[in-house]
Amino acid sequence: MTDPLALLRADRAKARAAGDPQGNLCVLATVDGGEPQARTLVLREIETAAGGAPRLGVLLNATSAKYRQLGQSTAVTVHVHLASVGAQYRLVCRLEPVPKAIVEASWRLRPAVAKRLDWLYEDHPQGSAVAGREALAAMLATPCPEFAPDSALGFYLAPTAVERLLLDQPDGVHDRRRYRLTPNAWQEEVLVP
Ligand SMILES: Cc1cc2nc3c(=O)[nH]c(=O)nc-3n(C[C@H](O)[C@H](O)[C@H](O)COP(=O)(O)O)c2cc1C
What we know:
Layout: H1 4-17, E1 25-32, E2 35-42, E3 44-46, E4 55-61, H2 65-70, E5 76-82, E6 87-97, H3 100-107, H4 112-120, H5 133-139, E7 152-166, E8 175-181, E9 186-191
Antiparallel strand pairs: 1-2, 1-5, 3-4, 4-7, 5-6, 6-7, 7-8, 8-9
Bound molecules: flavin mononucleotide.
């Protein structure tokens, strides 16, 4: 039985090996009062508390619009386009929280400015307006604590449905397949592309 997450991992590995700038990225789509919203995020392999294979996930800040929007739908869509592989993935996912200690360990590896921004969000939420670039630079001038604020969060993707579109087929017809998670396994269907 085909596991679409294994396919995604393999395609991401090929894309990264080919130097694809999208190889580590995804687009996270949410809804805000019924309106669609989308933004690029790093799609990470995040370790789990149980050990074993890492899971795909994203890191974000709780002061962000995207975090607020997570409460407005039961699922999100994660979109991945790997141009170097000719593959598109559309994943309908629930999000499961990453344990704080794992977020913390990853946060400590971040560049200094990213750490300062996460602390700045405590007083100035991500996406709030500031007086200008100079004012922002002044706010980021002072060092921040060397641990993550509580607003630094991580979520594992728990997909329930995945669509994969492969472009480059010998017969010229794109290969479009839908995978649905049933209690025991992924079910695969071939779709009209
Ligand atoms: C290449 C790239 C990678 C990004 N990675 C992240 C990320 O991992 N986490 C994040 O919160 N924002 C990331 N961003 C910024 C988001 O796209 C977005 O601008 C920001 O999170 C605010 O989104 P929101 O207002 O919809 O919450 C990234 C942007 C780009 C262009």
